[in-house]
Design brief:
- By secondary structure, this protein is an all-alpha fold.
- It has one domain.
- Helix content is 63%, strand content 2%.
- The chain has eight helices and two strands; from the N terminus they run αααααββααα.
- It has a two-stranded antiparallel sheet with strand order 1-2.
């Protein structure tokens, strides 16, 4: 029962943080709809089963089973994940990365900031999301433009803080959306 309440509390906390960040970026619909699939049975019960409290249960599920059905479900329904934007193109080229629309890149950044805040708690800094991104940089199959924009915004966050980054996103990144 502790894992149930712990997982529910974690996803609620995370969703509230992302919603607030999206609202600050004027992405109201995305803020409201963000991660609703986490409440679906396949995602929720996997989260409860593999809940640890200090990191995503998806990582633990992958360690135990070698894959995560919850993650496969989640990434296929949430456009703010770069994995959503992978396509098999044509058979000759194999899997290709499609450029993400800017509003979903911003939601992805809000998601990463909120996840860093949720799991790192008092150890969170404005560099946390960038450090996470760079840690997996070589294993990420993002469109080059999406990857460059993501890194640019996360570096801006590290260098200027959250409030200035939100203003920068609204006035420079999303203004021509």
């Amino acid at each position: 029962m502790n894992r149930f309440w712990g997982h529910l509390s974690t996803i609620n906390h995370h969703k509230i943080l992302v919603t607030k960040l999206c609202f600050r970026c004027h992405l109201y619909k995305q803020g409201i709809l963000h991660d609703l699939s986490k409440y679906s049975p396949v995602e929720f019960w996997a989260g409860v089963t593999y809940y640890q409290g200090f990191r995503s249960p998806i990582n633990r599920e992958k360690e135990v089973k070698g894959y995560s059905l919850g993650w496969l479900h989640h990434k296929g329904r949430n456009r703010h994940h770069w994995e959503y934007w992978l396509d098999n193109g044509n058979v000759k080229n194999g899997v290709i990365a499609i450029e993400m629309p800017v509003n979903y890149v911003v939601e992805m950044i809000c998601d990463r900031i909120a996840a860093s805040m949720t799991y790192q708690k008092e150890n969170y800094t404005d560099a946390s999301a960038l450090e996470y991104f760079l840690n997996g940089y070589d294993r990420v199959m993002m469109h080059p433009n999406t990857k460059a924009l993501t890194q640019h915004i996360l570096e801006y966050l590290r260098d200027h803080g959250l409030d200035q980054t939100i203003a920068y996103i609204r006035h420079n990144i999303l203004k021509n959306k």
